[in-house]
Design the sequence.
């Protein structure tokens, strides 16, 4: 069963999704996302039900290699 990644996102959801699917096969990882109408700048990433990145909690946008790597490491750990 693939690891589920849920992204509550701002408009750059596709960037995060593509980074994940570049590293992991789509048979291993299922990436879903949904928008937050009326709320701008909201961004949370859950991997296998665990919150791994939250702009609301102070993580900011996924705007650096380090932040993206944190998400990718969480997916890798969930697959192990």
Sequence:
């Amino acid at each position: 069963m693939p690891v589920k990644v849920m992204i509550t996102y701002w408009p750059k959801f596709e960037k995060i999704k593509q980074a994940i699917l570049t590293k992991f096969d789509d048979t291993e990882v299922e990436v879903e996302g949904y928008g937050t109408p009326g709320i701008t700048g909201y961004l949370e990433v859950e991997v296998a039900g665990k919150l791994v990145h939250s702009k609301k909690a102070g993580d900011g946008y996924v705007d650096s290699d380090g932040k993206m790597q944190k998400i990718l490491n969480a997916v890798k750990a969930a697959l192990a």
In short: Strands lie at 3-9, 29-35, 44-47, 50-54.
